[in-house]
């Protein structure tokens, strides 16, 4: 740790800098503290690098990629601004030393510790690869040692598998001595390159030597491609796996899951000599650091000294935007003895709503619109706002052709920060791709799935768990409220994909002592009576309708009641609709549903929102209105750090995906596949007296 210099910023976004952790040709890493006292490592890139559009695009990709990776052995991203004059990325602070430092000063680690190291790093890489990404620079310097295990850091060169944009075909990215042969020759890459690097790291940890030697980068790269690694001194228990990891052909290397399983041991295996004392000393030193002293004149932290790049940008784009908004800049100038002139107008941006307002799904679209309007009113009433918002609405009437036209009109509006929607149950992949090409953040509130392949475009931000994931809520209910030893899943093949996904998810997190059996109903069947009789005959204490049709779900409920079923009926997602309540009648009583939406009238945090909705629209909020309200709040939070006056939308998706936001419905934070963490987004509803009654978050019922 080194003291801050007079040129170092005292604040970076929401962080107050404390000391320097390191500096190099690309930028500076600071130890910083949030207003809540949490410590973070904040990497700030030099302005001269940020002027390169290619570099900025790559840094934007780095932030978005790192925000999608979670797990116990990776360091989480806590904040980022990829569009700042000097872009930055913040991660949680780990007070432990690097593997390179420990082995370089104390020598090789014990064999059991190396085995635990390999197992946990393999789990970290499994999370990276599960997000469709590659790390590409696994080395001892990028492994920090904490008291409970290692932490993999620095995803600055992570990228999508198969991606070639922004990387020259003859470029070698990685660290010689730890990169794979295919990296050395700039060949096609896959997860195997990280497996090879992991093998090199394990050899270093076990022997204190690099398996491919030292010397000039060219010499190390030659040995990587053409010679066998030196594995002398590797413990026999590790040798077969390490040898397989270092195979020249990626197809001959084991997968990360296999490595984790092969090396798995007990937590007691993690024992690094001298680590506890080192961590304790560094933790104490970090926690003892005082906040930067405020300037005597104002009592607020000294702002960053403007670089030449910042001054040029201010001249080109206007100092108001770079200062964070007219009102804030005027107040600050007045306190410093400025002229006291009235504030310049704040930048005006828009949030777009892509919704079905006149088609079959108009009730959901209208709820989105009303919730968004109230959120924009709330944002514009803030005294600390740095820009104003308005709502731009496009109605697609639930038609696929009109949806593409709506996307065209929205993307053509350069003042749009992000788009919410579409509001249909399934997002057309063509629409999602359209927004991706325009680099416009697409915030999905209600849709349960998308036709786009894989994880989806990088601009896609899904604020709800998928319908099959809602099964976690049913499992929680069975464990906490209505214990049973036998659950029958009625798989409705009328929606084969949805029913299979639900059937597949339920047994994955089983309740102790509960067994699951399945009764399948053909897509053409008009009755569920045979399946209902079989469930009752088997003594089922709970029955889950695995399908997506409210009408067929109601038929299932009625047939179960007719068969004498007295247990708990359950289902998910779109089944809980007016058609289910209407058609099932008394047979719907007591049915429990896992859903991704709340009832804001039952939430203390949404009391003011509910009152405002009643006052403005004359009714209680509809389904998804509160979630749309939170979507606007999340977009506004992400947009507060924008400095791109001419292209404000750039990087908003990345900031959304790296933001943790406390809304009126729940806490929103993202993990891989562009979705929020499901634990805080699964709610239970139960049919009582002919209507659905909100029970609450599945873990609190």
TrEMBL record:
It comes from the Bacteria. InterPro entries: Kinase-like_dom_sf, Leu-bd, Peripla_BP_I, Prot_kinase_dom, Protein_kinase_ATP_BS, Ser/Thr_kinase_AS. One of its GO terms (molecular function) is kinase activity. The keyword ATP-binding applies. ATP binds at residue 43. This is Bifunctional serine/threonine-protein kinase/ABC transporter substrate-binding protein. Belongs to the leucine-binding protein family. Keywords: ATP-binding, Kinase, Nucleotide-binding, Signal, Transferase. CDD domains: STKc_PknB_like. Residues 15-275 form the Protein kinase domain.
């Amino acid at each position: 740790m080194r003291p801050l210099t007079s040129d170092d910023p005292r604040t970076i976004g929401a962080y107050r800098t404390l000391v320097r952790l390191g500096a190099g040709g690309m930028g500076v890493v600071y130890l910083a503290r949030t207003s809540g006292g949490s410590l973070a490592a904040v990497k700030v890139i030099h302005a001269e690098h940020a002027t390169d559009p290619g570099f900025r695009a790559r840094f934007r990709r780095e932030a978005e990629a790192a925000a999608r990776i979670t797990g116990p052995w990776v360091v989480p991203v806590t904040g980022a601004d990829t569009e700042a004059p000097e872009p930055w990325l913040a991660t949680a602070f780990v007070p432990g030393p690097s593997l390179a430092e420990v082995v370089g000063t104390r020598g090789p680690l014990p064999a059991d510790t190396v085995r635990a190291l390999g197992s946990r790093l393999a789990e970290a890489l499994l999370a990276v690869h599960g997000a469709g990404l590659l790390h590409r620079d696994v080395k001892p310097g990028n492994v920090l040692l904490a008291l409970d295990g290692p932490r993999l850091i620095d995803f600055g060169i992570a990228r999508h598998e198969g991606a070639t944009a922004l990387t020259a075909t003859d470029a070698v990215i990685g660290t010689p001595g730890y990169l794979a042969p295919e990296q050395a020759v700039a060949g096609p890459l896959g997860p195997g390159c990280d497996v090879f690097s992991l093998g090199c790291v394990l050899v270093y940890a076990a022997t204190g030597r690099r398996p491919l030697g030292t010397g000039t980068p060219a010499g190390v790269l030659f040995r990587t491609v053409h010679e066998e690694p030196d594995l002398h001194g590797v413990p026999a228990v590790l040798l077969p796996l390490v040898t397989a990891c270092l195979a020249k052909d990626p197809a001959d290397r084991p997968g990360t899951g296999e490595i984790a399983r092969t090396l798995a041991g007990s937590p007691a295996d993690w024992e690094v000599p001298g680590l506890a004392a080192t961590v304790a000393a560094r933790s104490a030193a970090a926690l003892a650091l005082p906040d930067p002293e405020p300037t005597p004149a104002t009592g607020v932290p000294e702002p960053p000294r403007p670089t030449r790049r910042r001054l040029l940008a201010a001249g080109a784009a206007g100092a108001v935007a770079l200062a964070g908004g007219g009102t804030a800049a005027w107040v600050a100038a007045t306190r410093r003895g400025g002229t006291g002139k009235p504030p310049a107008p704040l930048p005006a941006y828009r949030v777009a709503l892509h919704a079905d307002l006149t088609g079959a799904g108009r009730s959901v679209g209208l709820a989105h619109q009303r919730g968004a309007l109230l959120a924009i009113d709330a944002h514009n009433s803030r005294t600390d706002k740095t820009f104003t918002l308005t709502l731009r609405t496009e109605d697609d009437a639930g038609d696929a052709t009109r949806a593409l036209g709506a996307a065209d009109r929205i993307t053509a509006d350069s003042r749009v920060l992000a788009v919410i929607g579409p509001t249909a149950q399934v997002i057309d992949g063509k629409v999602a791709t359209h927004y991706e090409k325009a680099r416009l953040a697409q915030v999905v509130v209600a849709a349960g799935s998308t036709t786009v392949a894989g994880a989806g475009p990088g601009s896609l931000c899904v604020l709800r768990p998928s319908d099959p994931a809602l099964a976690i809520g049913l499992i929680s209910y069975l464990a906490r409220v209505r214990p049973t030893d036998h659950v029958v899943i009625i798989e409705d093949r009328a929606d084969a994909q949805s029913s299979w996904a639900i059937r597949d998810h339920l047994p994955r997190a089983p309740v102790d002592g509960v067994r699951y059996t399945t009764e399948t109903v053909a897509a053409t069947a008009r009755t569920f009576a045979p399946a209902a009789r079989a469930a009752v005959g088997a003594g089922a204490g709970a029955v889950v309708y695995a399908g997506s049709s409210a009408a067929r779900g109601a038929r299932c409920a009625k047939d179960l009641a007719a068969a004498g079923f007295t247990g708990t009926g359950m289902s998910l997602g779109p089944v809980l609709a007016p058609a289910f309540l209407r058609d099932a009648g008394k047979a719907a009583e007591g049915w429990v549903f896992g859903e991704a939406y709340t009832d804001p009238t039952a939430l203390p945090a949404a009391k003011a929102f509910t009152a405002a909705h009643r006052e403005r629209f004359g009714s209680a909020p509809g389904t998804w209105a509160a979630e749309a309200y939170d979507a606007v709040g999340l977009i506004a939070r992400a947009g507060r750090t924008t400095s791109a006056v001419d292209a404000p939308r750039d990087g908003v998706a990345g900031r959304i995906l790296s933001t943790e936001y406390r809304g009126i419905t729940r806490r929103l934070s993202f993990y891989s596949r562009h979705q929020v963490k499901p634990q805080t987004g699964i709610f239970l509803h139960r049919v009582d007296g002919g209507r659905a009654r909100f029970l609450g978050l599945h873990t609190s019922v």
